[in-house]
Design a protein that fits this description.
Rossmann fold; OB fold (Dihydrolipoamide Acetyltransferase, E2P); six-stranded mixed sheet
Length: about 350
């Protein structure tokens, strides 16, 4: 088991009357790629900035390798941050940008030259030492910002939506670059994004946040396949989320129809949220299944068709490789294992996760 490198303990943070984090607890293990994922205003960037030393919590402590760094200056912490705005110096060459932190630390010129070459090779930009910042593409500038952080040999690299300014193709390429860097460097990555695909693609662990609370922590597979609540299910990918009644163990009522499921322990005749992923809905023209509907729209997505299907007063979202014309009457079926049942939260910002300290 890898050791806990970072530990947020009972952190609260407000800006005026706006509560950003409320009794926030989280630990990060050594050499982990952990992503804080959530909508704007959920507290993920504030969490990163507090770890980086750019903000101070109102209450609570931040531990780094057992040391309390809550009030430690940013330049004395064993970590570096890469922001969405790369903050490169346009009046300096690439080499001078990368060397900036090393010169402040008064490293020798030979040491600095070796580190520049090492960092540029690591980010696949060998030979760019004397280029200007303005001559680089957005993706190349992002790599230089990472190289500048790497040469300081941080134990943790903090990345605050670093791919947000890139186009789709570049963003996807950089996702794989970051995964490669993490493996080669063997350091801990703490990544902030609101992009679900980024989080699922790169992370060892995903922390889903909403309104200052952690909603779920898990592997990308756990987060996607076993969401803890309707917020997580809706935020991670697409979902059909419906009100249901848990009739008894392994039997739920959806849209007036009793449907077998695999969940137990919810009680009898209890209101629940029912989540079904679009790719788990099976359509057929034989009218087989637990419900019948009519296809109202179709969009070709490349690898599949995306359908809206009206059934029992609810518009289902369905992903299928089969083609059906608009107006086709279809049977709807979902195998019991793919029907997710979850408790209804008391409020939208209810704390969903308790962290063992």
């Amino acid at each position: 088991m890898k050791k806990k490198l970072i530990n947020f303990k009972h952190i609260s943070k407000s800006y005026g009357d706006n509560l950003i984090l409320d009794d926030f607890n989280l630990y990060v293990r050594e050499n982990e790629f952990i992503t804080l994922l959530g909508p704007s205003g959920c507290g993920k960037t504030t969490t990163l900035r507090m770890l980086g030393g750019f903000e101070t919590p109102d209450t609570g402590r931040i531990l780094f390798d057992g040391e309390d760094i809550t009030n430690k200056p940013a330049n004395e912490r064993k970590l570096n941050t890469v922001f969405q705005k790369y903050s490169l110096f346009p009046n300096m060459t690439i080499a001078e940008n990368i060397a900036f932190g090393l010169k402040i630390k008064k490293k020798s010129q030979s040491y600095i030259n070796d580190k520049i070459k090492y960092a540029l090779k690591l980010v696949n930009l060998d030979g760019y030492e004397n280029r200007s910042v303005d001559s680089l593409s957005g993706g190349q500038q992002q790599r230089i910002a990472i190289a500048r952080a790497i040469v300081n040999e941080p134990e943790v690299l903090l990345l605050d939506e670093p791919l947000g300014a890139l186009d789709l193709k570049l963003r996807q390429n950089m996702q794989y670059e970051l995964m490669r860097l993490k493996e080669e460097l063997g350091i801990t990555f703490l990544y902030v994004t609101h992009d679900q695909e980024e989080a699922l693609t790169m992370s060892d662990t995903v922390v889903v946040m909403n309104q200052g609370y952690i909603q779920q922590i898990g592997t990308p597979e756990d987060i996607y396949n076993e969401p803890e609540n309707a917020f997580v299910a809706d935020f991670i990918g697409h979902s059909n989320i419906m009100d249901g009644i848990m009739i008894e163990d392994r039997l739920v009522e959806i849209l007036g129809v009793k449907v077998p499921c695999v969940d137990e322990g919810f009680g009898t005749n209890k209101p629940v949220d029912v989540v079904i992923r679009p790719e788990d809905v099976e359509l057929n023209t034989d009218m087989k299944g637990f419900m019948e509907g009519v296809i109202t729209s179709i969009i070709f997505k490349g690898v599949h068709y995306e359908y809206d299907v009206m059934a029992n007063g609810y518009e289902w979202l369905v992903h299928s490789t089969q083609y059906f014309e608009v107006g086709t009457k279809v049977g709807i079926n979902v195998i019991p294992f793919n029907i997710q049942i979850m408790h209804k939260p008391e409020s939208s910002d209810e704390k969903a996760v308790e962290i063992d300290e």
